Protein 1
Amino acid sequence: MNSADQYLDLYKKELLNNVLPFWLTHSKDAEYGGYLTCLNRDGSVFDTDKFMWLQGRQVWLFSMLYNQVEQNTEWLDFALHGASFMEKHGRAEDGSWYFSLTRDGRPLVHPYNIFSDCFATMAFGQLYKATSEPRHADIAYNTFNSILDRQTNPKRQWSKAVAGTRPLKNFALPMILCNLSLEIEHLLDAAMVDALIKDCIHEVMDVFYDEKSGLILENVAPDGSFVDSFEGRHLNPGHVIEAMWFIMDLGERLGDQTLIERAKDLTLKHLEYGWDSTYGGIFYFMDIKGRPSQHLEWDQKLWWVHVETLIALLKGYRLTNDEACLRWFEKVHDYTWQHFKDAEYGEWYGYLNRRGEVLLPLKGGKWKGCYHVPRALYQCWKTLEKIAVKNDGGAARRLNVMS
Amino acid sequence: MNSADQYLDLYKKELLNNVLPFWLTHSKDAEYGGYLTCLNRDGSVFDTDKFMWLQGRQVWLFSMLYNQVEQNTEWLDFALHGASFMEKHGRAEDGSWYFSLTRDGRPLVHPYNIFSDCFATMAFGQLYKATSEPRHADIAYNTFNSILDRQTNPKRQWSKAVAGTRPLKNFALPMILCNLSLEIEHLLDAAMVDALIKDCIHEVMDVFYDEKSGLILENVAPDGSFVDSFEGRHLNPGHVIEAMWFIMDLGERLGDQTLIERAKDLTLKHLEYGWDSTYGGIFYFMDIKGRPSQHLEWDQKLWWVHVETLIALLKGYRLTNDEACLRWFEKVHDYTWQHFKDAEYGEWYGYLNRRGEVLLPLKGGKWKGCYHVPRALYQCWKTLEKIAVKNDGGAARRLNVMS
């Protein structure tokens, strides 16, 4: 239905006119600092706990927009508002980041979750680009080093697994390091970044890759082999697809077209595998042997899965010209905008049931904040711009033709 | 549609002819001992991990049937088969029970979960009644004492909550102690049982009871007050209703008709509150302020919620003659048998989506085993027998009239 210019306009305006104002208006905690992220459909607050994942992601998002889109001081101030709360209250004595705090900053949940640290690193790394404040760089750098230190035991003393019986490693950490390595490249020495990137790509594309099925697993044995257990059979198509655009970014940086082609192929493969041919949308979780999942939410349609897919498809098209990416983009775009976008209030819905009906009317909660939707809108907007420039209008025609 | 005699017949035959044969046929691990509980619709095995909750519950179930229904040596042998695996592999060095083991008995998940110990206590307490084997009594007795020792810190070192910030206690332990106190009464001294029963009843009926709403909360402050947080607002109607028949059992033992009436009233209150007026069935989780749940499975219909409700309604009717219990029994009976029973293969489905469609076709998994369905069929059968005897046919007519 849309030309590339129309898509571009849609993504850009949705970001700037609907989604950002939602968070700027509703999520600032003027009283205690930081952000309130548990927001109802209309932006009213339904819970005041503060989750470090979401505080860090929101600081990152507004810093990134300030750095990449426009030096809008409202955005930088908003990022600093969150960062200052994080600095003051977010860390345990050993410097690792709590999982959650009360509204006034008292620790609620121990630093059991390494991704709190990942998002804090992203936040302060990106913020430092805007402020040049050495303190911000230090926080990012020190947190990043502590992530590397604990990467073989990310859950620390809170891990319930008996060591040695069935060792497994999880896809999420190497996957996020693919993204983090570029995010904080400016703080690390070049040799370290090169080694890190090489290692992440190997983990994501080889170690977690299952030859037999051609799919990427969520949990594997330390040597990368398949483990026939609930965890070993577990697939998360959206997670893989998100990783594939991180890999495409790395491929572009390295000038490695083979890597890019493979990431694009794996995007399409997992999208085809995860697509619900009955009701549309992408399943949240699957089992590689088709066995019952241990996750009751397996058939739900989650916002982040769909918006990350849009990014991967546009990047895949831009970097490989594979028209299958465009065909899928239009299909996933239609599903996503029809089901997740809320015509009345800025931010999008997050949780739909299998049929695409709203399951939880929240706009933000314990796991959903100011991150995937605005990041995807930004990434799609910028990628569509590059497509238009590269093809000198050709892609615009193509997108029109394909619809 | 049914008279009491017809219901009685239905519940009894379903237990003896369909459900028990399913587990006897499919769940015995003849090679490594214990039970295989991850079973597909037809009973075929889809995973071989062994979860201590489910091993203990199955030992308990077959021991209980041997003790209460018929001294069938196949049942006792089957219970001993599981008990011997548990004895050999189930405990850590400190005597607490692992959460899960590999098929051959190597520990997978640490003893972080106190309910593994609760079900082990029930298992060996009930088994001892059948075997008079002192070893079985010792295991039950020692495990029970360790539960009491750790009841203020049930998750031990694996608790992620920072101590002191927002102390909460959970309903599940006092609730299960209501049941456990009667289950292992034969192993404890009378004064201890009396004190324990008094304490459990107080916890369940007073401490977790929220005056304002008239509902029982899942998590409260140590003094029983409401905490406005995700955990504090969380409601689990099925859990409360299950607790209410434990309370009715205690009320009957104590001859406390006031307590019984209150438990019956709370059963009806939570059933009305939790009933899905759009699609039928009882919601899994709710929020006392109607706010979005943090649990994505909140609107699903789970087997145990429904079969526990059937027990509570029949006991409520038997002990109070409140006809509202009968009206609801027929409604919940119809929903439950129409949606959870599998016409082809013995054991029932466990997980339905909000509309009552099968969400996971498994008959047993990580959390569903040989427990709620057969226990409920047994409890309903025996309660219907008592109703028939007490009313000398009156209830039979009544059930007929109400339908």
Protein 2
Amino acid sequence: MGERLTEISEPFPDRVEVRGRDLAGDLMGRVGFTEYVHLLLTGDEPTDDQRFFLDLLLVSIAEHGLMPSNVAARITLAADPSSLQGAVAAGILGAGPVVLGASEECARLLEQAVASGRAPGDVTREIHEAGGRVPGFGHPLHKPLDPRAERILALADERGVSGPHVAYARALRDAVATEWGKPLTLNVAMPMAAVLLDLGYPVVAAKAVPILARTAGLLAHLAEEQEHPIGFLLADRAALTGG
Amino acid sequence: MGERLTEISEPFPDRVEVRGRDLAGDLMGRVGFTEYVHLLLTGDEPTDDQRFFLDLLLVSIAEHGLMPSNVAARITLAADPSSLQGAVAAGILGAGPVVLGASEECARLLEQAVASGRAPGDVTREIHEAGGRVPGFGHPLHKPLDPRAERILALADERGVSGPHVAYARALRDAVATEWGKPLTLNVAMPMAAVLLDLGYPVVAAKAVPILARTAGLLAHLAEEQEHPIGFLLADRAALTGG
Amino acid sequence: MGERLTEISEPFPDRVEVRGRDLAGDLMGRVGFTEYVHLLLTGDEPTDDQRFFLDLLLVSIAEHGLMPSNVAARITLAADPSSLQGAVAAGILGAGPVVLGASEECARLLEQAVASGRAPGDVTREIHEAGGRVPGFGHPLHKPLDPRAERILALADERGVSGPHVAYARALRDAVATEWGKPLTLNVAMPMAAVLLDLGYPVVAAKAVPILARTAGLLAHLAEEQEHPIGFLLADRAALTGG
Amino acid sequence: MGERLTEISEPFPDRVEVRGRDLAGDLMGRVGFTEYVHLLLTGDEPTDDQRFFLDLLLVSIAEHGLMPSNVAARITLAADPSSLQGAVAAGILGAGPVVLGASEECARLLEQAVASGRAPGDVTREIHEAGGRVPGFGHPLHKPLDPRAERILALADERGVSGPHVAYARALRDAVATEWGKPLTLNVAMPMAAVLLDLGYPVVAAKAVPILARTAGLLAHLAEEQEHPIGFLLADRAALTGG
């Protein structure tokens, strides 16, 4: 008797089963990609709110100009033009905590803080006194507000999905302003994490969603790079020591 | 005066412009992720047919069980559990011509063949006589039909988007059967390429679409790996020389 | 006036300067690769002992059979045969803390413990009571001794380079046996870290050395894969659910 | 009975066998890393000439300033500081034909040309007439000579290892100058390929050697990046559209 190594999908000669459904006979043509992403990740089809906000969050984070990871990917494609997948991989490798992964840290913080019932002021003070920074605050360009963060919060309220994690994210904004003596930009990472948790997603979704979103942005930059190459120009501008 | 390095997007302090639109003010909450992918890649919002088939193709190719790239990604996450992005990158690196990239070769073949007006039998014979194989034919498991390929073709007909590239893909099926003396499975790569071309997408989309789709499948496997680790088991089973 | 972004090297039309030396005129043909690695990493040429042990450690850790990262790399090359660099990258991505990176954790532990003067028994007990494991102990195959670890310690003694970090590594072996009530294999990671620190290398070397070493092993497996492909066989064996 | 999947190495509880030798008992402390690389790749220990030139070639190609792949790797480490292996992987992914992989193309060209006995002028003319470029010629900075290439050729003559492939590389220099009507820089890729072939290495070595060498350069840049971070500065300089 065979063992079953994964619950996600299994291919057979005449069909592919995904999460217990028939891929060609049931899913293809009926569910959109966003719903399918939800099904793959969780095993269930999304509610309307889950689908709406999964779309919203993927759109919010996919692209933000010539970010470091797009620069690295375009340089990589210039050096190895035949490997689109290599350049995508190089770009995704820059999806670390500093640039993109803050939403996972935000999700972890929110989950623990809400579960423990600790006051935002206490959580913030503890982080500050330990010499740390609260994830999800600050942005080099968007000041005083990150328009994407505000839009997510507004839509969460408008559609009635704001729950304890969104409330805690907002309370953190005030606590951070008090603790640091000035307001800091609530960037897109914190509302993304809060909404995902309020909609029932696990913490890992707060990292999976930005990685998937950013892959779309990378593919757009790499398609453009094939038409209008700037990869070596970017590398030259970066490295130029002249003056 | 500043130069403009990319046409895709540009961030400003109070907004992010993507393809000339305001990300937070216009796109977020209005367009879904699939439409946004189309906008990022092409600069325009999709027609209904483009959105429908982009969804369909992304769904068709995202996941197919414990494929080699999913195995490689799960092994990589087991070895470095803190780097989801590293494991995704490792999985994407396996998205090469043998496993996933056939659709790009199919697109190139279809584009040239349709543009040149050459007969499918001539194209097939030339490839065969050169000792080659026609891309998009044959599958180790799905015989005689790949259910995903058939579903794509049926929906293309049903919605009236089948054009010269879909017709050529079908003609190739007959030509291949004649040339090799037996029918070979038309796998999912060829209808995917044909439909993308008939809908006006560039050849690069035939590689970008599977990479984005597969990233979703990888993320599902890696989320499962975090809950139920099998990465080292997979590596052990692969390497076991005993008996 | 130009700024200087890196101290490592600078190319000019008629020469390449590396760490202040003329690459073609001075280094090429005079220094071996191991000495050059030392020069690149540290800015200085190595002493005889540094060169001997850098060679030793690189040799000790480069290859260990069909390890998970070699499996992942061979699967990746099978899927994308034209990209040797992609398969190497996939293999290196598995060089994380579980499989390969333990030496960096060992170096950090040894550096702090020796600097603080804390007793090995106290350090070990603290880790145990916190539910943790001491890095560098335990091996699935090599029991009760890891032959590579013993050889490194013996040569460190023989050549008189054993200092406080090697002494601490040995003391940890006894402390771990006492704390856990049974001896655990001192694996190759701990002596590697200890010798590097006693020879004056920074902590980062304890991760750089295994990554460089393992790249050589990966390249050997990938050269063999090109001659005798087993990548898909490995993936099939891993994924096979039958019985 | 167990099958044997790889000829490179096999670990046992009390020893590790590499290419039929006992790693701890025989190789560690006796062979240097360069000799070990040769043993891993080929199955044999190198002759003195093979070791000398393997060292020479690894040294010649490891580092060349803030090259595109070093830029991409430093940007990636800045974005994900905890993953040295991720940043190395990103850097290696840029080791494609344009920047680094020309030596493999040179090796393929030299092997076929020498085996076929075709005249350099004919080979060059055919490439030119097909609209192509001869690999290994031209360099954006090193003009009219690449000092590394000249040094390799001089040492190959001096130590008596120059054979038919080195002779052909030299003849190509003249043929290219005649065909294009002006001399082009013979860059480091061509002598590297020629010497490897004259010393009996397979074509794959012409790609493996630069990848291993470049990994050392990447590790030096990433160690420096940890001490003196410039990754985000590089990305900013690259992307800056202002003026």
